[in-house]
């Protein structure tokens, strides 16, 4: 029997019931729904809207229902449509008329809004924790590879030598901004919609501040129409997920490249790789590829919710029932991707000699050679041209810059002297970087020290 049956003279068709129902996916909000209802019942009792005894009975029974759901003893029905009406139906079946009083001064519109906010508050904390684990893994690896030299790329062409620690710390910065973004998003999610009614507030003497306190919300949303119609916080959450997935995906792309025979910079552990059903020699970086692929799904979730909300007139519209699928999917996908990525990172083998060898070839010391001439008083633009010609000469000869004889150096510029050889060695190139935030060994140590110092700063 429908809870809203009064105005209707006909039963809904079973196909309409099926189409209308959200219980298939919103049942995972049962804890939040019961938590919200318990707070609401307590508030109704405290305010004398229902009696204290009625409130107590409702609270007690909701606690029992929660336990029964956790023990797998409860079956939800499509007929009761969504998690809210399923739980209310069970409550009323257990305690009769008193159960029917729970929905006084409340609408499913403020109920679902509070459920999603409660759910997302928890999810955000979990994501922050998993992101912190990833940051710790990056920090650990970076500490191990302060001296590991590798090529730095632009346009995927060898550009200037860097260290692996430096490269890892670039990702550290990206993921720590992700954590900051989630923490900002938490601030806007942490606002209470409950007590707004359907859209216009209620006629009862409710206490929304009490509800906020009971449910652990820092603020009460000031406008009831906004409170039931707004899904910005959910869009923002998926947007944070999308950006974090994008960072993961970039990193995965590098791990995929680095584990190819062409790069051979790392080897992903067997426990995070898969084989081919036909080619016996294959070892594939499937986890990294899947994260890259799932990033597309999470972008889809963001686009989906943005589009669901676009064009919705005030206030609640049933379209909003569709918000949960992308929210759940984005949260689940990000959490799983972050966890597997961290494990993969901590178990992969770094082939430091291959990285270092790659850093020695590719004329990545050309900028440093130009800087050498600048130090002898030549304008940078002229130095750039001289070294460009030298690189071309070396390419044709098939040698590296530091394999030129002193005579050859001098033929390009009389300013060259013996110290050029030391100046353009890979390690010298790295060491010579002086600007704040550079790849020099000292700068990377300073970056690590800064990270250490900021530990304990709560996000
Ligand atoms: N199942 C609905 C949702 O997820 C709950 C709110 C329904 N409200 C309504 N007026 N039909 O959005």
Major sheet: size, sense and barrel closure?
Answer: 2 strands, antiparallel
Number of distinct helices: 19
Helix content: 55-70%
Shape: elongated
Instruction: Give me the secondary-structure category.
Output: mainly alpha
Order of helices and strands: HHHHHHEEHEHEHHEHHEHHHHHHH
Classify the oligomer: single chain
Catalogue the ligands. arginine
Order of adjacent strands in the largest pleated sheet: 1-2
Strand content: under 5%
Radius of gyration: 31 Å
Residue stretches low in confidence (pLDDT < 50, at least 5 long) are: none
Mean pLDDT rating: 96
Family: Belongs to the lyase 1 family. Argininosuccinate lyase subfamily.
Keywords: Amino-acid biosynthesis, Arginine biosynthesis, Cytoplasm, Lyase
Pfam family, one: ASL_C2
Pathway: Amino-acid biosynthesis; L-arginine biosynthesis; L-arginine from L-ornithine and carbamoyl phosphate: step 3/3
């Amino acid at each position: 029997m429908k809870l809203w049956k009064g105005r209707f003279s006909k039963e809904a068709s079973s196909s309409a019931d099926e189409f209308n129902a959200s219980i298939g996916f919103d049942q995972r909000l049962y804890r939040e729904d019961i938590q919200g209802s318990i707070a609401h019942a307590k508030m109704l009792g405290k305010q004398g809207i229902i009696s204290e005894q009625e409130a107590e009975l409702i609270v007690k029974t909701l606690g029992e229902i929660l336990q029964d759901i956790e023990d797998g003893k409860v079956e939800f029905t499509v007929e009761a449509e969504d998690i809210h009406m399923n739980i209310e139906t069970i409550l009323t079946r257990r305690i009769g008329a008193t159960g029917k009083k729970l929905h006084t001064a409340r609408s499913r519109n403020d109920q679902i809004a509070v459920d999603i906010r409660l759910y997302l508050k928890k999810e955000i904390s979990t994501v922050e924790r998993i992101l912190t684990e990833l940051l710790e893994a990056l920090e650990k690896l970076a500490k191990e590879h302060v001296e590991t030299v590798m090529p730095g790329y632009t346009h995927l062409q060898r550009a200037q030598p860097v260290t692996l620690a430096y490269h890892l710390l670039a990702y550290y910065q990206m993921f720590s901004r992700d954590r900051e973004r989630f923490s900002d998003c938490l601030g806007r999610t942490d606002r209470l919609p409950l007590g707004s009614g359907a859209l216009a507030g209620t006629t009862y003497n409710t206490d929304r501040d009490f509800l906020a306190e009971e449910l652990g919300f820092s603020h009460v949303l000031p406008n009831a129409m906004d409170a039931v119609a707004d899904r910005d916080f959910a869009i923002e959450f998926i947007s944070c997920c999308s950006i974090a997935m994008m960072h993961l995906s970039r990193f995965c792309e590098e791990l995929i490249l680095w584990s190819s025979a062409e790069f051979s910079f790392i080897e992903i552990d067997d426990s995070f790789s898969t084989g081919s059903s036909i080619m016996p020699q294959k070892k594939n970086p499937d986890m990294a590829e899947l994260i890259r692929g799932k990033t597309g799904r999470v972008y889809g979730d963001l686009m989906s919710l943005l589009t669901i909300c676009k064009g919705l007139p005030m206030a609640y519209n049933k379209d909003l029932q569709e918000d949960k699928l992308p929210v759940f999917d984005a949260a689940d996908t990000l959490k799983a991707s972050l966890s597997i990525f961290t494990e993969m990172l901590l178990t992969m083998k770094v082939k430091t000699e291959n990285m270092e060898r790659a850093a020695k070839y590719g004329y990545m010391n050309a900028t440093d050679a130009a800087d050498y001439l600048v130090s002898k008083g030549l304008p940078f633009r002229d130095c750039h041209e001289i070294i460009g010609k030298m690189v071309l000469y070396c390419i044709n000869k098939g040698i590296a810059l530091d394999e030129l004889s002193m005579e050859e150096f001098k033929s390009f510029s009389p300013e060259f002297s013996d110290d050029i050889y030391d100046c353009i060695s890979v390690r010298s190139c790295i060491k010579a970087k002086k600007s704040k935030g550079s790849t020099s060994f000292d700068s990377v140590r300073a970056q690590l020290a800064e990270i250490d110092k900021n530990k304990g700063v709560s996000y």
